Amino acid sequence: MFLMHPTGFSFALFPALMSLAVLQPSQAGCGDPCCGTLYQFQVSQSGASDFDRFRFNLGVEAEGATGAEAIKLINARLGSLREVLQPLVTGRLTVPAPNSYAIGGGNAGPRRQRASTTVSGVVSKANYNAVIQAAGRLPGVNLQGFTSLSSSGSEEAVQAKLMRQALADGQRQAQVTADALGLKRVQLLRIDQRGGGSPRPMPYLAMARSFNPDEAPAPSNSVNLALDYCLF
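-> structure tokens emitted (232 positions)
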């Protein structure tokens, strides 16, 4: 892809580990922000933050001959689940209203009604095992996954560290390019931050193999920058 600079010079974007573009030098006193070589590229940094909590998701189901019977049974199961979870969780549980739908019929047997919903909340590392074990003992409850959550202040500290690393990498890359072109100075013109990090889900199968919360994947953070440098 070719781009056109206001000075009339065109430059191409080349796919690589870091996308980059170089604009040839314009005349001294050009009046542009960069009167040398405009160097554009992208740089990314990623890292993990500390975590001390998990967001969990549980599925709850119940069946009955009628919709009313299925709803009555799932409400009873939700009551039992709330009773065991409340002492273990941090903050409130989130429970959407149950949905009911028909199942079976024909060769699959008599038609019945199934009600289902989810329960989600936040639990500390200390209560992680207790939530898994308590939920596993109740009928109609299944574990759907956990997501590790950053400790207070940890994500901000990691993001700041990644930003510093990305800018330092950008400065080094710009200086290497300037040296290759026989130029002596680099000047940062523009920073465009493109997206950030988010917690990474912990798959259910990983939980089935081990109940050690320290083995869970840590929240993943990233910094993605588009940088413009002037080389002269």
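The first helix runs from residue 67 to 85.
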